[in-house]
From TrEMBL:
Signal peptide: none annotated. This is L-arabinose transport system permease protein AraQ. SUPFAM superfamilies: MetI-like. Keywords: Cell membrane, Membrane, Transmembrane, Transmembrane helix, Transport. InterPro entries: MetI-like, MetI-like_sf. The chain crosses the membrane at residues 20-39, 78-102, 114-138, 150-168, 189-214, 248-269. Coiled coil: none annotated. It comes from Pseudoneobacillus rhizosphaerae. Its main location: membrane. The gene is araQ_2. The keyword Cytoplasm does not apply. The keyword Coiled coil does not apply. Residues 79-269 form the ABC transmembrane type-1 domain. Gene3D superfamilies: MetI-like. One of its GO terms (biological process) is transmembrane transport.
Amino acid sequence: MIIKKKLSKNKPNIFTKLFLYLMLFSGALLSLFPFYWMFVIATNPNHVVNRVPPAMLPGEHLVINFKNVLETIPFFGALYNSFLVSTTVTVSVLFLSSLAGYAFAKLRFKGKNVLFVFILVTMMIPSQLGLIPSYVIITKLGWISDLRALIVPGMVSAFGIFWMRQYIKEAIPDELVEAAKIDGCSQLRIYWTIVVPLILPAFATLGIITYMGVWNDFMWPLVVLKDESVHTIQVAVRLLNDAYVRDYGMIMSGTFWATVPLVVIFLVFNKFFIESLTKGAVK
C-alpha cells in the first residue's frame, strides 16, 4: 500500500500533462512555421511578399514561380548532382564507418585507443581550416568542376566512426561475436551476417545526418564547382539571388522544392531514427 501511494504521488496530474502537451505543441509550431512561411512566399508574387502586413495564406503562383526558377537555373540538373553526391557519400560513409566502428568496438590490435583518440581529435578541428589545403590538393588532382571533388573527401566520416563504434559496443554482446568465431566465421562474415542486421537503426540515424549534411553543404561546392553544369542544388539556388531585382517568390520556390527531398527521406527513415535515439532509454 505504501509503495502504491508513493507511485500515485509521483504520477503527473492532469494540469502537468496539459502544460507539457502545450509546450510540445508550441515547440512544434515554432519549428514548422519557417517551412510554412517559405511555402507561403513560394506561392505568392513578389509584390505580395513585400506587402505590409505580409500575406499569411498561400497564393496561386507556385507553378509560375517554379517556371521562373527553371528559366533561371538548371534546377533538375543541380538536383540530380546533389542526389548523386549525397547518395554516394552516404553509402560510403555507412559502409566504411560501420567497418571501422566494428573494428574499434570488437577487435583487439595495437594502437587501437591512440588511433581512436586521433580520430576524435579531428572532429575538434574546424572544417574551414582545411579549406585551402583541400583546394590545393583538388587542384593538383585536376578535379576542379568535377563531382569527385565533393565525393572523395567525404567518403569517410570521423563522427560516423565514433557513432558506429559506440553503438556496436553497446548493442552487440561480445559473447555473440566469440560464438561466431568458434563456429568458424571470418571477421567479414561476422560483420555482414551479425553486425549489420543489428545496427540498422544506427545506419538510419547516421544516414539521415550524413545525407542532410552533404545535401545542405554550400561552401565547399561553391569553391570547387566552377562550371554551372555540375552545380549542386544549394549553389544553383544561390544564383537566384544574383539578380538586381530580387524575386523572393522565385527564390523561395526554388528553396522549397530543394527541401522536399530531405523531408521525404526523413519521413521514410523517421521510425529507425527515433528508435536509434531512444534505444536504451526504456527497459
